[in-house]
Design brief:
6 helices, globular, mainly alpha, 144 residues
């Protein structure tokens, strides 16, 4: 496959993943789409051999980062200290657990700055990350 065909296949995968997650969010009225999922799709569809593209990294890091952000907000509210603390703790845990996925750090900041509640961890973060990971796994196996 030439590089332009490869890019077309990868871009189509990103399109499908973003569209499906967005449509499911619309249908269920849960608002599943968050900005970091765009960067996650680039990694999963275009950089699939990257350590950052492993499913455990994607799901694990989004879980850790959203937990850190929500907990930090509920303990310290929305301050510069709580944002920095949440991101620092999230990165520390991701490194220890070997589940680094850089786009997930954005959900930490989103959780603190928006005052997210505990449900944010499940909807949109965990459910969206799982959907994108499954879609990417199926799609990339079909178009190796």
């Amino acid at each position: 496959m030439n590089r332009f065909a490869k890019y077309a296949v990868e871009s189509t995968g990103v399109f499908i993943a973003i569209l499906l997650v967005s449509l499911v969010g619309d249908f269920t009225q849960t608002g599943l789409m968050i900005a970091p999922f765009g960067a996650t799709c680039v990694i999963l569809f275009s950089l699939r051999s990257s350590h950052f593209a492993r499913m455990r990294n994607v799901v694990g890091s989004y879980t850790v980062c959203s937990l850190a952000g929500v907990a930090s907000y509920h303990i310290m509210e929305n301050t510069s200290w709580s944002i920095a603390f949440a991101v620092g703790i999230a990165v520390f845990i991701m490194l220890i657990a070997d589940i680094v996925h850089p786009p997930a750090c954005a959900v930490t900041i989103i959780a603190v700055t928006t005052g997210a509640d505990w449900l944010y961890i499940i909807f949109p973060v965990l459910s969206g990350a799982l959907m994108i990971s499954v879609i990417a796994t199926i799609y990339t196996r079909k178009f190796k």
